[in-house]
Amino acid sequence: MISRRKFIQKAGLTASTLPLMPAAETLFNNQNQNQAVLRVAIMGLGSYANRVARAMESCTRAKVVGVISGTPSKVKEWQARYSIPEENCYNYETISEIASNKNIDAVYIITPNALHCEQTLQVAKAGKHVICEKPMAINAVEGARMIAACEAAGVQLLIGYRMHFEPKTLEAIALRASGELGKILFFQGLSGFRIGNPNQWRLNKKLSGGGAMMDIGIYSINGARYMIGEEPTWVTAQETKTDPIKFKEGIDETIQFQLGFPSGAIASCLSTYSMNDLDRFYLNGTKGQVEMQPSTGYGPISGRSHLGPLKAPVVTHQTIQMDAMAGILLNNEKAPVAVDGYEGLKDMKIIDAIFKAVSTGQKISLTNW
Amino acid sequence: MISRRKFIQKAGLTASTLPLMPAAETLFNNQNQNQAVLRVAIMGLGSYANRVARAMESCTRAKVVGVISGTPSKVKEWQARYSIPEENCYNYETISEIASNKNIDAVYIITPNALHCEQTLQVAKAGKHVICEKPMAINAVEGARMIAACEAAGVQLLIGYRMHFEPKTLEAIALRASGELGKILFFQGLSGFRIGNPNQWRLNKKLSGGGAMMDIGIYSINGARYMIGEEPTWVTAQETKTDPIKFKEGIDETIQFQLGFPSGAIASCLSTYSMNDLDRFYLNGTKGQVEMQPSTGYGPISGRSHLGPLKAPVVTHQTIQMDAMAGILLNNEKAPVAVDGYEGLKDMKIIDAIFKAVSTGQKISLTNW
Prior knowledge:
The first copy, chain A, is α/β, with parallel strands linked by helices. Chain A is 34% helix and 22% strand. The radius of gyration of chain A is 20 Å and the shape is globular. The two termini of chain A are 20 Å apart.
């Protein structure tokens, strides 16, 4: 079992320098070491799971082979569409039985945020790699528990940071890393959309753990980190709620937040569930700029720098992500930008601090743990 | 003499509803009531004064007829270029003598910020209308003194808000006012440039009264107000200083600030002296958006809404401004967006609050005075 201090130390590493953990030498991995294709079971069969599975039809190294769902009718549909055998279908009471299934390598958890932690612990205990959709959990303590549990079980934990594999995003990061933009001074992230159905789980604190920040604001948090290439040291934040009926206690509608970085770079970000089509990144350095719009949406990313348009190809994000994750999990390949549990934990710590900044009105230091 | 309470009440009016003051029935105005051209003396002959004077060569209703300067060589240059007679040339010791000059209607004060208040008082005492470059002063108390002094002297006080006459800006405001954008939710203003010469007056607290906020950040403050069409009720702000040698105590390099408005709309703004080419406005409503870039620079303004590009003509800002100000001062015409002392005071109150928010780390209410 990894010590608390040890993973805190690891979590202090920067996204760019954090090494991937070596693959655990488990029975499971030995069995699959010549396996070219990552066999994935999807947990939670909602709309994003559908999007992932459709994208995975174009994967060359990953395949949907199983499902975990509490809704038998959905399981039937998925079995038919993806030719999933009966023995690879589970519900939330039978998760532990996945341990004996030699035809499943990893479980991709695509359930409401508040369920991620316990479900990750269950999957880890069953000896399968975990891919967990972001946010990895509803707070940093849960994230830390997930990391510890996966390390103890000898399985890997990856977080569904699809932008970390998206070509135009990587092109922008490479421009910054090359020094082409000069010293980085300012990042702006606007992340939001106007949320519809007031009865969905995203607006239910018990399932979501929070509102827009958990769901969409995290793109600006994560984006600030990978675009600037540093870890923030402080945060301030201001909440605005215009519709307290739709956005109940604990469900943030709109939060502005600001981050400070060791170099003196700053970030100004917006997270919202009440504005249309807000999906913009802007990075300003002494020698140049990059702007992206859309910057994190599911469709084609578009951007330009002072040198002209970003030229990297348009891809289906989840196809690229899952092929790359197969390489990470099966062949110990390195992600272009970290997607492990420590990466997820960094965002959770910032989200915790944003909520604390909102409730106290204070500038919150991010260097304390 | 206007009471403190009276001008505070007036200052509480919104930009869109504030009526222009009726022209004072002074000897001066009676003498010029048939005068089609506003005869302007420029006080302070620096680079912006040069820009204004060149632009005024194309004015049909305003003309540079005099100068006030402490530098005799500049006075000679201006006399030659603008055919200014000797009797319309003053220095800072002879300002009071303008009182007896029947050929000057107004003085345009284009001097360092910290001098605006006393100079306005001097010009008002001499019975001439005051046009004062923004920021009107270095704090709200000074601004209030200026308003009171001009009202007591029966002269008008206008602030050099050139964007309030700029056609694309007015087109954007009209779009918002028409309801075309729906309910306004968010304004973003990025205002900054990389300041050069470290020895200029803008970086000398005694002359500037502050750093980037006074000089360029005020565009985002003022822009937030005219683009949203409301007066803010609170402000939060965070300062970053990366170069304490260049930006000394009291000279702000970079400040992020956030404003909240009665409708629930919010603004996120950046003021900086250390970033290149930051001149962007973005306004988001439930039904549409407007973005402008450049949004406040001296050159052509460019912008688009969800309906397409803004179509209003490109103009020389200062030409339009001075012709319009001639109409205000001579014919009691109404400015499209207020440019009087109360308008300037509103921005000064917000700047005061931003500095207080920075120093205290607290959210500052703007409804107290």
